[in-house]
Request: fold
Amino acid sequence: MIGGSASRSSRSGIGIITVALPLSMFVLLSFAAPSFFTGQNIGNISNQIAALLITSLGQLIVAISGGVDLSVGSTLSLTSAIIVSFDPSIVIPLALFAGCCIGVVNGVGVAVFGVHPLVMTLATATFVQGLTFLVLPTPGGVVPPAIERLAESPISGLPGSLLWCAAAILFFWLLLSRSSFGLRLYAIGANPRNAALNGVKVVAPIITCYVLCSLSAVAAGVFLTARVSTGDPTVGASFGLDSVTVIALGGVQLSGGIGSVPGVILGAITLGLATNGMNLLGVSPFLRMAATGLLLLGAISLQRRKTIGV
Amino acid sequence: MAMLETPRERPGYRLLSAATALPIAYVGTLLLLLCAYMFRPALLSPMLLMLIIRQAAPLGVAVIGQSLCIRILSIDLSFGGVAMGVSYILTSGYVPGNQAVLIGGSLLFGAAVGLANAFFIVRLRASSVIVTLAMGLLLTGIVIAFSQFRAPGDAPALLKYIGQTRIWNVPLAPLVWFALLIPIGWYLKRSVLGQYIDAIGANPRAAHATGIPYASVVVLVHVASSLFAVVSAFLLVGFVGMGSLDIGRDLALNSLAAVILGGVTFGSGRGGILGPAVAAFMLTFLFNLLTSFGLGEPSKLMLQGAIIAMAAIAYSARTRN
Reply:
């Protein structure tokens, strides 16, 4: 672990498997499924991956700080419910406000009161899911045209999903690699006590992480709702664990301090290709759910921790 | 523990700290009963109370397993998947054999899931939350995929008998719960294993350093926890009388809430077996009270989340002081 390149790669967390997995999946799919390379399918994949990638980037910064956020799925669902249930002019500010509140509650619970992040975010996830059912009990509703246009691209030929991804990637890359906030975050995640002793404030950055994570779930929710043009109170149900799977596949250490934007992009592509591939090969959606579970077990087994337990 | 408190050994302080150290569930249950007495006295009739206790039994059994996991700083969120798997084994008709074989098979299945959880948690050192959530996802996906397009069949007669019979007006299901609860509580107080569990909960590193078989205890607890989930699913399947894919859906979250309310927290090494049991009753009573006020599923979920969060915050604030 001596030397610049070694320590750099250890902070990004990208290993051989992180890179090899999406590549091999790509090769495998192009042989196994003939319709894989059609333009329509590539468009489908980028749409499917976009929401997942945006959510997972939020999950990334929480994970670097040493936490995890299981409430992103409910936040995404709540956004979808808000968009079809209120006056079109206030839905976006309302969804962003809701995201901020969820993030602040998570962050304060974890950083100020010292509740385990999984317990805290599982609790908010349950609460927010209940709230979502209160706002929109069943799938349906009409998405305002102005919001539908958000998922479309202003440049013809370029899918809107790509622009959303690019914006999210740029934002989180700048945040993590080019800002002092990012540097402090890595320090906090690696060892909060050391960071605090070195004069890095711990509480505020962690709360900020949870707020940004919830806001990225809101952004993913806006994109997803705009694309499917209808509201669904359970649309985000799978995103909590899926985003954790993505970051684990991307080499992000759930114990904190290690992880990078490129890793998460690779992870999102891996999970996206896996889902899309099973779709093309006609695998039952429930078996796909089981496969995600298996993939998650595999991904976290790759990262040995020091402690046993939660 | 006692040594740490020596500077503050005044009787008044000790009384106060003993009172605040009581699980939230005790006070909560009293408040709820009071609330029911004022607004919905019908809920307090012996007949209905008995029904609520019967309804609490599956959760109560699952809570025993969850509290063991949380005492050793682990967690088991795969209860839902286990319950669905058990329901499938018992009622799908695909699995051959008489009811003894089916029940034995379910227990074996539970033990296998527990072992798999423990393998990932102990051997591969993966986070138990993620492992058990993934395991739940895996089992749920497989069971739903297998049981598509086929109506579930009847439950084994023995489980229906346990779920639906009453002896001198006392339903059998709570008796099963108490029959598990009391010996296990006594065993954990008296046995070496119980001391190991307490030691690991109080300080895992110290427990490891003193030569306590850390890994074996974690494996044992996770297998036990899955077995409790299986018994809990037996009771649920017995109540309904037939299989269902809805069985045990909120078992994991409710058991987590009950354990936290019952005064067992991560890393304190404190907490008994009675607190979580009272909390299981409290939650069931609360849901009945809410239903009687006409509140539906959404508010139930919101309350569940709020309870978990607030109880967790209250306990961490307390242990910090």
